[in-house]
């Protein structure tokens, strides 16, 4: 795939050539295919506007002169969820790294470090199999001088907010953020205990006090409903309480399966705080590096999506103001951030309880120069997908890389996927779960108009 970094025209006429190594996944696509193709698994219309509106939207998106493209290739990977091997396989497939051993840090750059940009779309943490290995791979890429941007995902954000709420379980608005993590975080806690025994506190509170520092009190649901009134709708409050009850039970059961008691979990949180929140911690660089969003030419890179409020602020004040507000909000009250428009951008799935994206938001995005959102968060089984939502093109890139997700959802083998934005004016979706590399160009909108008989 080295041709993606060569100057001059992009050659898609011959089969892709992949680097080979003993550690590279072998099931990689061997052909190229237009993204807006007869295969409905590649693209999707999320809403059904009138024929006239849909025709106008597709016509607008098909005007190649309206699109601007980055000056150098962008490699977008997202929702890695602590799977360092899938990350390395994806970087190797697009010839960004060359591995010289099986270890997660045994690689060097295969291209000049300024040949492309690398954007990670959030959800680096949680689930497994190895949070620490993935973080060390990211740090090595930084040390090697890669032009690297880290976006915040909902799992990354929830973990930070949970750790900041420990000991504040009597707070009616924030007392549930730790248990809101759910049982998926427990393998990470087990890994911290096993890897850093020297950081385990020598003196711990009793099991009952540890539990009280992590879980909200029995009367917390009533106090939360009262405190959240006016900020959340009654339906949102009901959902939050239902989610909490399920996660308390699942968390306790998973702890028993893993052989962990409440003192163990509390000790793991203290280790996490030392590693991530203290200035000398091994991963103290991670959270200060996170951004909310990253615009580039006509594209906006983000973890989950956008709503009208954020789109209007982006158009009026710019991306850096949003990023500054997000970084400041990380230090403020968890509830206020997570349920704000900023929080919506890392967790929305455009459900009724999420922030709304309408033509108002679409028009604001266009005023900001944005024609497409490139994001993850909504995991897919057949590689990347393009969705038209509220007149905004969405390139959905969560290709279920993580091994835990793949095992749970019946996907074979390790994941391998990368979305490449090329300066020549196209987007390529590579995934080992789909037989071809999808290629999007704006002029494909004309073919879609014909196919839909508009």
UniProtKB/TrEMBL annotation:
Domain Calcineurin-like phosphoesterase: 73-166
InterPro entries with a match to the protein in the record: Calcineurin-like_PHP (IPR004843), Metallo-depent_PP-like (IPR029052)
Superkingdom: Bacteria
Coiled-coil segments: none
Matching SUPFAM superfamilies: Metallo-dependent phosphatases (SSF56300)
Record GO terms (molecular function): hydrolase activity
Protein name: Metallophosphatase family protein
């Amino acid at each position: 795939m080295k041709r993606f970094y060569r100057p001059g025209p992009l050659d898609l006429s011959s089969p892709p050539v992949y680097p080979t190594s003993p550690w590279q996944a072998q099931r990689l696509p061997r052909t190229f295919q237009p993204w807006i193709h007869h295969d409905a698994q590649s693209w999707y219309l999320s809403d059904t506007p009138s024929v006239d509106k849909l025709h106008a939207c597709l016509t607008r998106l098909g005007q190649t002169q309206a699109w601007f493209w980055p000056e150098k290739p962008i490699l977008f990977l997202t929702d890695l969820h602590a799977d360092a091997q899938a990350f390395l396989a994806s970087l190797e497939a697009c010839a960004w790294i060359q591995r010289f051993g099986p270890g997660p840090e045994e690689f060097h750059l295969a291209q000049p470090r300024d040949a492309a940009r690398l954007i990670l779309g959030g959800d680096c943490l949680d689930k497994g199999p190895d949070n620490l290995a993935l973080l060390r791979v990211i740090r090595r890429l930084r040390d090697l001088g890669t032009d690297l941007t880290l976006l915040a995902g909902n799992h990354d954000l929830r973990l930070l907010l949970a750790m900041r709420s420990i000991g504040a379980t009597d707070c009616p608005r924030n007392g549930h953020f730790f248990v809101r993590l759910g049982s998926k975080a427990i393998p990470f806690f087990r890994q911290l205990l096993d890897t850093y025994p020297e950081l385990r506190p020598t003196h711990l509170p009793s099991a009952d006090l540890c539990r009280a520092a992590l879980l909200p009190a029995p009367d917390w649901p009533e106090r939360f409903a009262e405190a959240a009134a006016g900020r959340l709708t009654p339906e949102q409050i009901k959902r939050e309480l239902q989610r909490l009850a399920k996660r308390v039970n699942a968390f306790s059961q998973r702890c028993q399966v893993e052989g962990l008691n409440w003192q163990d979990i509390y000790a793991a949180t203290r280790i996490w705080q030392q590693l991530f929140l203290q200035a000398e911690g091994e991963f103290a660089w991670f959270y200060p590096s996170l951004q909310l969003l990253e615009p580039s030419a006509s594209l906006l890179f983000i973890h989950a999506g956008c709503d009208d409020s954020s789109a209007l602020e982006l158009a009026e004040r710019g991306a850096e103001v949003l990023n500054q507000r997000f970084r400041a909000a990380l230090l403020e009250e968890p509830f206020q951030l997570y349920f704000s428009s900023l929080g919506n951008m890392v967790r929305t799935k455009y459900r009724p309880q999420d922030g709304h994206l309408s033509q108002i938001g679409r028009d604001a995005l266009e005023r900001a120069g944005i024609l497409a959102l490139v994001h993850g968060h909504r995991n897919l089984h057949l590689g990347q997908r393009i969705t038209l939502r509220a007149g905004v093109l969405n390139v959905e890139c969560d290709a279920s890389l993580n091994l835990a997700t793949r095992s749970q959802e019946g996907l074979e083998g390790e994941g391998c996927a990368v979305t490449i934005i090329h300066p020549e004016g196209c987007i390529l979706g590579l995934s080992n779960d789909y037989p071809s590399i999808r290629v999007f160009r704006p002029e494909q909108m004309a073919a879609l108009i014909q196919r839909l008989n508009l």
